[in-house]
Structures are given as C-alpha cells and as structure tokens.
Design goal:
459 residues; alpha+beta; HIT family, subunit A; 4-stranded mixed sheet
C-alpha cells in the first residue's frame, strides 16, 4: 500500500451507489460525500439588514475608515498613486504604493485601500518572543516606536490602545488600569510596533453600490487589480515579519470570512502570525516530500487533471477542486520555480492573485470561507510550491465525524468543479475576473506543470 494513502489505495473512489470516498494525499483525512447532498445551497445570506442610508458606513465597525485610531498603530498602508481614488478605474492595474511610518495626524493625508495593523490580541505575543528567545526589536522599529510616542496624539493613541487591551482581556480591572503609571502603560506597548501578529484590513466594509448592510465587500467584490494589490501587500508583510524576527521559521497567513469561518468582524481582512514552529501540516508534508520530491505534481495537480477536477489556470498558476478535505475546498497552486512568494516576479504573483480572486468571486460573498496560505518554511532545505487553499465553511462537524474520523462533506469535488466552472464563465464574460483565465476544457494541463521541483528544471 502506498505510504501516502494510509487507509486506501487511491485518493478518490466512487462506490456503486454513488457515494464518493476521498483520502487526502497529504494528510490521510478520509471524507465521504453521500448522494443527494451535493446541490444544497452554500450561501448564508445576512439576516436583519439595515438600509445603508440609515447608518454611518465609515464608522460601522472598528476596521472602518472612520475609525483609524480604534486599531493599534498602523504599520503600513497600500495607497493608490497618481491621483485620487476617483481617478482610478477598475482596469487601472498600476499606481500602487506602500506607505510606512505615519503619525496619527498624517493618517488622512492619503486614502488607505489596505492597512496593516497589529492584532489587538496576538496569538503569539511580543512578550512570548521576549521571554522565550530574548527577542529585541530592531533599531528601525525602535525608532518608529519612539517617534510615535514622542508625538502627543500618538502617545495618547498608544495609551488608549494598551488600556483597551488590558480591560478587554481581563488582565487588569478598570481600577487597576487607572492606577497604572504612564511608563507602565508604555512598557506594554512594544507589541504594537514589534509584534508578529498583523492584520491586513481592506478599506470598504460594504460592496460598491451596496444599499443595505447585507451587501458586504469581500475578496470577490474587489476588482482584479485591487485584489492583486491586496495580495502584494500581504506578501510584503510576510517578508517583513520574517526579516524582523530571526527566530521565526514560519509565518502563517490566512483569511477568515464571515462568522461561521471564525471572523470576529465581517469586514474584509487577512491575518499573519509569526510562529516558532513550521506547523503540523508542514512537518507532515516535508517528511513525504523527502521521499517524493515531485509529490505536489503527481498527487495534487496531475491527479486532479486526470480526474477532470481542474477548474481554471493561467500561465503561472492552476486551480482545482481539492480531495479529502473536511469542507468543500479549492486549491490554487503557483507554477513558479521560486517557492517564496516575496521572491516571485510580479507576473507570477499576479497570476496567483487572479485565480484566488476568481475563486472568491465565483463562490460569492455570502459563502463563509477560510483562505489558508502554504509556503516553504524559511529554514527548509527543500523547495515546495506556494499554494492557497480556500475552504467553504458550509457544514458543522458532528458526532459521526468525531467518533469515526470519517468526515461527511456536503459537496463532492466534481460538484465543486461544476459550480465554479459555470460561475467563472459568466464572470469572465461580464469582465468581473481576469480575462486571460483558461477555464475547464480550455486548460492546457501540462504534466508536471509545477516547476518548484529542481529535477524538472529541464522540462
């Protein structure tokens, strides 16, 4: 029996009654799709909506553009250049710039299409790195923190932010917070400048042309150019986290969309978390990768193609319906020979962005989902491709799954493919996704198309 499929010889088996049994080739997760459940609706439309004319859309949540000081101090922002927001059409792919080092009084000098701010409640805290590794913030970050606190408005912003975290976390009561000296408060501020858990926040809470609070701005409602800027900005943030903390072997990047997927706010945002491990998923795959360096071609992209699960591709990326996931899943792989996203060419990054964007647009803004990034840990001696996995959180795990570790997926990989293909054709015709995507039978499906494997360098 193959070591990659611990419970079954092949990842995909269709039984005589139509039950589809799947085994994920990298995790061994077993999933069944039972006939008759594949056409269930996936979206979760918002209930109890309010007309936008009745609310202040700039102050709807803490991530909205009217509440810039409700988040910790901004690390960076992505802005349009060469004119105002109104001067840029959906087709304008140029004219983006990352701006850093702003003080509170400068935040409204430009319009931030995307902001990078520290998470108020870090998964891996700044104090964790200091206590366990002797981490010291770099000189540039220290200088930025000093400049921010030297500014009167910046100092007040930091003080209020520390107080908010202490009260909300229950670390200190209201009276105890009031008794803290200013130096005590500022001593707790380091994580807001040198911490390793950041949030990338989109500008708009609601989609363009929205009329009520149920019409949210999602990854799929961005234009392809806006989404490409978001991806570039996120990649730059990941590279920055690696560069500023030498104890970090891996930066986890993910996006939780809507509350069923774990989002605290229904405002579009991504998260990056620097961790001191590669993660269980990476460790499992690395062991397999050493045995079969070409496994991502053989067991993922090519296997999907042989079973007609490919959804779309372009010259530098490919998307297919995933096999053996607890939730209906889309997988997007970079074909680049360069494993690190921040070292890839602009064209290669744009190709990945266009496919990720098309997947979100085709699913629609009402489908809760997790977007997970997987890339080569920075200290790994072997290449592995950058890939993004999008999981639709449209089912709830129950007793059967807990007792058997066999998961019931409401929609088969074939049904995922059919839904996505139909939607992408329509969106491409409407000009809502990248025009150069090759969809379904248009795909070239070159074998071993992922060029990360050095043994394929001549192909």
């Amino acid at each position: 029996m193959s070591p990659y499929f611990p419970t079954r010889q092949t990842p995909l088996t269709t039984m005589a009654d139509g039950t589809i049994k799947q085994v994920n080739p990298f995790t061994g997760t077993e999933v069944w799709t039972v006939p008759g459940r594949g056409n269930r609706p996936l979206s979760v439309p918002a209930a109890g909506t309010t007309p936008l004319s009745e609310i202040d859309t700039d102050h709807h949540c803490a991530f909205c553009p009217g509440n810039l000081l409700l988040t910790p101090p901004e690390k960076a922002r992505m802005v349009r250049t060469g004119g105002t927001h109104a001067d840029h059409t959906a087709g304008d792919g140029d004219g983006w710039e990352i701006v850093t080092g702003l003080l509170p009084h400068q935040l409204h000098d430009t319009t931030a299409e995307f902001r990078r701010v520290p998470n108020l409640f870090e998964i891996v805290s700044y104090d964790y790195w200091r206590a366990n590794y002797g981490f010291i913030m770099d000189s540039a970050t220290s200088a930025r923190m000093a400049a921010y606190i030297a500014d009167a408005e910046g100092r007040e912003h930091v003080r209020r932010t520390v107080e908010t975290r202490l009260r909300a976390s229950g670390t200190l009561g209201t009276d105890e917070v009031a008794d803290l000296t200013e130096s005590d408060l500022l001593e707790r501020a380091g994580g807001f400048f040198a911490g390793g858990h950041d949030i990338i926040i989109a500008r708009n809470h609601f989609a363009p042309g929205a009329t009520d609070t149920g019409q949210l701005a999602s990854s799929g409602t961005l234009t392809p150019d806006e989404h490409a800027a978001l991806i570039r900005f996120t990649i730059a943030a990941a590279a920055d986290l690696y560069n500023r903390n030498r104890y970090t072997p891996y930066v986890a990047v993910f996006q939780n969309w809507l509350k069923p997927a774990g989002a605290s706010f229904d405002h579009l945002h991504k998260q990056l978390v620097a961790i001191d491990e590669r993660g269980v998923q990476a460790d499992t795959e690395i062991a397999q990768l050493r045995a079969n360096p070409n496994m991502y071609n053989e067991l993922a992209v090519d296997y999907a193609a042989y079973h007609n699960l490919t959804i779309a591709e372009n010259d530098h990326a490919i998307c297919f319906a995933g096999i053996g996931h607890r939730y209906p899943t889309l997988e997007i792989y970079s074909k680049s020979a360069t494993p690190e996203p921040w070292l890839q060419s602009e064209e290669e990054v744009r190709a990945m962005s266009d496919l990720i964007h098309a997947c979100h647009a085709a699913a629609g803004p009402d489908v809760p989902c997790n977007e997970e990034w997987h890339h080569k840990p920075i200290d790994l001696d072997m290449p592995m491709p950058w890939r993004v996995v999008i999981k639709w959180r449209v089912s709830t795990l129950a007793g059967f799954e807990g007792g058997t570790k066999i998961y019931l997926n409401t929609i088969s990989p074939q049904s995922i493919r059919d839904r996505m293909v139909a939607a992408m054709y329509r969106l491409r015709d409407d000009g809502a996704i990248a025009p150069d995507l090759r969809i379904a039978t248009e795909c070239r499906l070159e074998r071993n198309s992922l060029r990360y494997n050095p043994f394929l360098s001549g192909h």
